[in-house]
Amino acid sequence: MINCENICRQVSEVAKETGKFILNEKNKINPEIIETKGLNSFVTYVDKNAEKLITEKLKKILPEAGFITEEGTETKQAEKYNWIVDPLDGTTNFIHGLEPFAVSIALSENNKIICGTVYEAGKDECFYAWRNSKAYLNGKEIKVTETNKLADSLVATGFPYYDFSENKPVLESLDFLMKNSHGIRRLGSAATDLVYVACGRIEAFYEYGLSPWDVAAGAFIVQQAGGKVSDFEGGDNYIFGREIIAANNNIFEEFSGIIKNFFKNK
Q1: 72 CB-contact burial (10 Å; exposed 0-12 / middle 13-18 / buried 19+)
Q2: For the chain, which terminus, N or C, has the lower number of CB atoms within 10 Å?
Q3: pTM exceeding 0.85
Q4: What does the alpha-carbon distance between residue 121 and residue 10 come to, in Å, rounded to a whole number?
């Protein structure tokens, strides 16, 4: 059996090294080097080079593992172990000089996450957890909050930027949450949203239209920090199902029920 703690600590160093590279390139971004992958979906040489840096180092940590990557620098998947990599979650923030933006790396074993690291480069914060561990931020244990009512909670979400088919439930849910919570935040990085649930800065997060690399590491860290995660139907297809709900234990049922109700006809 592999040593998950040892691997996770090595991955955290890879994520931090990649974050430093990203920060070093921050002031070099200009419109001429921004590529468009799709409507409002952007990529730069920073994303691509960061992913190459990550994958080359991960190959040395666990040579038998395959990859699921955002930029497609590595595409071969393996039967047992696979790395799920987002080299720069929050590219739109990054190209506009905003934070947060994060490096997200998860390791799956037989399609179950066993290690997750999210490095939020702007704040130099490294969140991580491994199988059967607690969750940590820069070496200190983190936990979700114990807030027990949505009315006392801060909620994060993401806004659609290319798939506007669910605008109606999105807007209706926003209207409800504006009136029935402490407020709504849209940070622009799902990986960061998730680890902010894990460390107690927000109580809940939901979004649709996400990819595995956006959520794999952060969702795992939420669970290891004592929170709950599901898809909009309450199931466990939140990594590949393109929709996710995460919250502390105390409000999860209330919050997930509300989101499920708004998106029930999607």
Answers
A1: exposed
A2: N
A3: yes
A4: 17
b/e per residue, 111-139, with b = 16+ CB within 10 A? Answer: eebbbbbbbbbbeebbbbbbbeeebbbee
Classified by CATH at the fold level, domain 4-142 comes out as: Fructose-1,6-Bisphosphatase; Chain A, domain 1 (3.30.540)
Token pair in block for residue 133: 């561990």
CATH code, residues 150-262:
3.40.190.80
**Three-state SS at 244:** strand
Residue written as tokens 């234990």? 249
The pLDDT tens digits of the residues spanning 45-86 come to 888 889 999 999 999 999 999 999 988 888 899 999 999 999
Number of helices followed by number of strands (H, E) in the chain: 7, 14
N-term to C-term CA, the chain: 42
Distance CA 84, CA 223 (A): 17
Spatial separation of the C-alpha atoms in residues 104 and 213, rounded to whole Å: 7
Residue 28 has which token pair? 């070099």
